Amino acid sequence: MQRVDNSAQKNKEIPPKSNHLREYAWLGVNASKFKSMAGTIVTTIVSAVLATVVVIIIVKIARCCNLSKIEKITDLIRNRNSRNSPMNSTTLYQEATIEMDSMEQFLDKILSERPVRYTSEQVKQITDNFSTELGKGGYGVVYKGIFPNGLQVAVKVLKVSINKTCQEQFMAEIGTVGRTYHKNLVKLYGFCFDESTKALLYEYMENGSLDKYLFSSQNQLQLGQLHDIAVGTAKGIRYLHEECQQKIVHYDIKPANVLLKADFTPKVSDFGLAKYCERSTDSNSGAWIFTGGRGTPGYAAPELWNLGIPVTYKCDVYSFGMLLFEILGRRRNFEADQTAESQEWFPRWVWQKFDQGEIATILDTCGFGDDEMRKKAEIMCKVALWCVQYKPEARPTMNGVVRMLEGDMEIVPPLNPFAYMSGSGSTSDSTQQSTEGSSGTTSGSYVP
């Protein structure tokens, strides 16, 4: 019995060799698994990086293809205009025809593209056969439209009986407006140009035009809102003059051409008179100039009515000044159907009161009682007087206008912008010094 017990004891103290073999085998297997897992992780990371690079390359190629197609459209327009050859809409855009599987896919893409050409049938579908009219004028009628994705648009349908010159201008201006992108400029989504329909498709502006709020007793806005609208409008014009790839003069700045989004963000619209400006080699000042009478009476700068005199982009500054006066007074600058006092030209009345040191009278008459509002109104008053100086070189740039309105530049007392009306024949007081440095980047104040 004793021997049996000793044997059992020894067996308990000495583990079987097979256990050691199992442990060593387990370690070898797991080491192999670790190596395999590490290799898998590295492979996954490399594959993900390569896939991302491939996707980016594909997207860039697709964008380039779309842009090159759009560039062909503009080049075709320019080449046709430069050759002065007859306009044939079918052949002109034959290369620009866009293949599409469905209307929805086509319209979804235009939000990220430049203006796209539509057929007359597509325009009918978008406007529900021209069922909702928004307004009309000498140019034609504006209808409300809806894209299949729900986006609302304003469709301006022009009169079909437009002459060849108007047709060429219509096509050329698509290339100009379509190249402008700014939060304070109305976006052009597309156009239609064929035998039966000639139309422009713009973004829809829920609150209509600014004149509806300035000249109606039922739609009054607070000065704070009007000040923001003035600043936004000025920034849109500044973009056209100073930030666009090629300088653009609008020619027709007025309340009717300032449209308002649902949140009252202003957007400059109606580029029907807009023109590219070429740098003059004869101008010592290096101004961007052109000639020709344009604009709307009451807003157009004096030089626009003197044909043959070079006209600079400062004509837009003058028009903006007239718009500022109407924002300030919340009335038309001249209202012939009102009382005798109202028939006085508002800008000149403002200057007379300002020159007599009675700016408080201006603010009281315009109904500004709050101190903060009065301060903003006084700034707008001074800026307006500088903008409507008779000589273009005495007017600030739009960059200077924006900085003054936002309070980033001190404004010195303006000079008499209407001295030429007094009969003295002298306008030298308002043009003694140049305003070409009026952006105020060095001095911090506007001194002409």
From TrEMBL:
<feature type="transmembrane region" description="Helical">
    <location>
        <begin position="41"/>
        <end position="62"/>
    </location>
</feature>
<feature type="binding site">
    <location>
        <position position="156"/>
    </location>
    <ligand>
        <name>ATP</name>
    </ligand>
</feature>
<dbReference type="Pfam" id="PF07714">
    <property type="entry name" value="PK_Tyr_Ser-Thr"/>
</dbReference>
<dbReference type="GO" id="GO:0005524">
    <property type="term" value="F:ATP binding"/>
</dbReference>
<comment type="similarity">
    <text>Belongs to the protein kinase superfamily.</text>
</comment>
<dbReference type="InterPro" id="IPR045874">
    <property type="entry name" value="LRK10/LRL21-25-like"/>
</dbReference>
<keyword id="KW-0808">Transferase</keyword>
<feature type="domain" description="Protein kinase">
    <location>
        <begin position="128"/>
        <end position="419"/>
    </location>
</feature>
<keyword id="KW-0472">Membrane</keyword>
<dbReference type="InterPro" id="IPR008271">
    <property type="entry name" value="Ser/Thr_kinase_AS"/>
</dbReference>
<keyword id="KW-0812">Transmembrane</keyword>
<feature type="region of interest" description="Disordered">
    <location>
        <begin position="422"/>
        <end position="448"/>
    </location>
</feature>
<keyword id="KW-0723">Serine/threonine-protein kinase</keyword>
<dbReference type="GO" id="GO:0016020">
    <property type="term" value="C:membrane"/>
</dbReference>
<keyword id="KW-0325">Glycoprotein</keyword>
<keyword id="KW-0547">Nucleotide-binding</keyword>
<keyword id="KW-1133">Transmembrane helix</keyword>
<protein>
    <submittedName>
        <fullName>Protein kinase family protein</fullName>
    </submittedName>
</protein>
<dbReference type="InterPro" id="IPR011009">
    <property type="entry name" value="Kinase-like_dom_sf"/>
</dbReference>
<dbReference type="InterPro" id="IPR017441">
    <property type="entry name" value="Protein_kinase_ATP_BS"/>
</dbReference>
<keyword id="KW-0732">Signal</keyword>
<keyword id="KW-0418">Kinase</keyword>
<dbReference type="InterPro" id="IPR001245">
    <property type="entry name" value="Ser-Thr/Tyr_kinase_cat_dom"/>
</dbReference>
<keyword id="KW-0067">ATP-binding</keyword>
<dbReference type="GO" id="GO:0004674">
    <property type="term" value="F:protein serine/threonine kinase activity"/>
</dbReference>
<dbReference type="InterPro" id="IPR000719">
    <property type="entry name" value="Prot_kinase_dom"/>
</dbReference>
